[in-house]
TrEMBL record:
<keyword id="KW-0408">Iron</keyword>
<dbReference type="InterPro" id="IPR002401">
    <property type="entry name" value="Cyt_P450_E_grp-I"/>
</dbReference>
<feature type="signal peptide">
    <location>
        <begin position="1"/>
        <end position="24"/>
    </location>
</feature>
<dbReference type="InterPro" id="IPR001128">
    <property type="entry name" value="Cyt_P450"/>
</dbReference>
<keyword id="KW-0479">Metal-binding</keyword>
<dbReference type="GO" id="GO:0005506">
    <property type="term" value="F:iron ion binding"/>
</dbReference>
<keyword id="KW-0732">Signal</keyword>
<dbReference type="GO" id="GO:0004497">
    <property type="term" value="F:monooxygenase activity"/>
</dbReference>
<dbReference type="Pfam" id="PF00067">
    <property type="entry name" value="p450"/>
</dbReference>
<comment type="similarity">
    <text>Belongs to the cytochrome P450 family.</text>
</comment>
<dbReference type="InterPro" id="IPR036396">
    <property type="entry name" value="Cyt_P450_sf"/>
</dbReference>
<protein>
    <recommendedName>
        <fullName>Cytochrome P450</fullName>
    </recommendedName>
</protein>
<feature type="binding site" description="axial binding residue">
    <location>
        <position position="375"/>
    </location>
    <ligand>
        <name>heme</name>
    </ligand>
</feature>
<dbReference type="GO" id="GO:0016705">
    <property type="term" value="F:oxidoreductase activity, acting on paired donors, with incorporation or reduction of molecular oxygen"/>
</dbReference>
<keyword id="KW-0349">Heme</keyword>
<dbReference type="GO" id="GO:0020037">
    <property type="term" value="F:heme binding"/>
</dbReference>
Length: 428
């Protein structure tokens, strides 16, 4: 009988012990809100009217730099500041791991590589020529002979599926017909079917590379499912960061004529050293230092990624608070990049902030995350952006037809597209 009573009491004793441990290392302030939904709707609404930063600033004023809430179906801790960014990106990997929301994993697949390591930039050099061909083709099709260009989302069926996927990546993971999440799952399924049928294989090089991975017994080490999910990941990541950055660079250059002229002079000097029709090289891109500073300032003011999530693997302890195992940890890039105590006059577009990398405080500029967990697509984005800007500034001038506001859903997008009036420059 005593043994039976002891067995019955064990769960109760364990629960009491767990609660005492939690109480001795307190949880962050704040409310988890309504089950599953929590504060997700409030944040998403704020992002869609471009007040996401203010939404988090209000939380900081109310609760301080660390607070708890519920986002995208899971209990979450929001942390803010340079020290918080360091904790997320450079902390103990046995305590905190990179993990996306359940909605993103369901849409992209659960076998995608959210982090790559050991990649050499030499691998990307071979793609400069291919990327340049695609840029020239795009300019010829969409810019030449047109007085106005509207950089909008193409409504072609395949690309429409792609856009619907993106819109639901930050959403409450509830499968209801009218929810973004459900629509994104449907779009993801249609896109996976097309890729599996090989009716749309824009990343054949990636597919070939993954197929070629074999072990010492000459057996494939990457499954078909992993190949498919990683193609989906690369398509989303590669599209968003570059397209958003280029869009807002065109916008900021139009609003800042002196900066536009400086970019043009740098790119014209490179163009003068090329024989007619000669492609850009890796070495040419290395010379585009000022242009890349303009890109970094654009990323500071309009980062493609508003924030991101990690997951507590154990019970990490930070800032005097316990983050329970399994909870999400949310960081926001805007919170430090637009902080006037870190960047003077943060609303002013000023590429000279990046003339000396040492002048940028550590863990304050994080559009691609931070070392050692920096986004593997950052170098790809740099190449694509510099190639596009080179041909646009040397061949065209432009002005904004509409100084439009932008929303986040979840990427920043001008509400009516970026409508430009363009003029082809006379080639010397």
């Amino acid at each position: 009988m005593n043994i039976l009573i002891t067995l019955l009491l064990l769960p109760v004793l364990f629960l009491l012990s767990w609660r005492r441990r939690i109480s001795s290392r307190k949880l962050p302030p704040g409310s988890l809100g309504i089950l599953v939904i929590g504060q997700s709707l409030g944040l998403l609404q704020a992002m869609r009217i471009n007040t996401g930063e203010e939404w988090f600033c209000e939380r900081v004023r109310k609760y301080g730099p660390i607070s708890k809430l519920t986002l995208f179906g899971k209990p979450t801790v929001f942390i803010h500041g340079q020290a918080a960014n360091k904790f997320v990106f450079h902390g103990d990997s046995s305590m905190v791991a990179n993990k996306q929301t359940s909605s993103i994993r369901a849409i992209l697949g659960d076998r995608n590589l959210m982090e790559l390591s050991g990649q050499d930039h030499k691998i990307l050099k071979q793609y400069v020529g291919n990327m340049e061909k695609e840029v020239r083709k795009h300019i010829q099709l969409h810019w030449q002979g047109k007085e106005k260009v509207a950089e909008r989302i193409d409504k072609e069926k395949f690309l429409q599926n792609f856009q619907e996927m993106i819109e639901g990546m930050w959403s409450i993971p509830v499968k209801l017909p009218f929810m973004h999440y459900n629509q994104s799952l449907d779009a993801s399924y249609r896109k996976k079917v097309k890729l599996e049928q090989r009716t749309a294989t824009p990343y054949q090089d990636l597919s070939t590379s993954l197929l070629s991975k074999r072990n010492e017994e000459n057996e494939r080490v990457v499954t078909d499912k992993e190949i498919l999910h990683n193609i989906m990941l690369i398509m989303v990541a590669g599209h968003d960061t570059s397209s958003v950055l280029i869009t807002f660079m065109l916008c900021f250059l139009s609003k800042n004529p002196a900066i536009h002229k400086a970019v043009f002079l740098e790119q014209e000097d490179i163009a003068k050293g090329k024989i007619s029709g000669e492609p850009l090289t890796w070495e040419d891109l290395a010379r585009m230092k000022y242009t890349w500073r303009v890109a970094m300032e654009t990323l500071r003011m309009a980062p493609p990624i508003f924030g991101g999530l990690r997951v507590a693997l154990k019970d990490p302890y930070y800032g005097g608070y316990l983050f329970p195992k399994g909870w999400q940890i949310f960081w926001s890039s805007n919170m430090t990049q637009m902080d006037e105590t870190i960047f003077s006059e943060p609303s002013k577009f000023d590429p000279t902030r990046f003339e000396n990398q040492m002048s940028v405080p550590p863990y304050s500029f994080i559009p691609f995350g931070g070392e050692p967990h920096i986004c593997p697509g950052n170098e790809f984005t740099r190449i694509e952006t510099l190639v596009v800007i080179h041909y646009l500034v040397t061949q065209y001038s432009w002005e904004l037809c509409l100084d439009d506001h932008y929303i986040r859903d979840p990427m920043p997008v001008p509400t009516q597209g970026l409508l430009l009036r363009i003029v082809l420059k006379k080639q010397k």
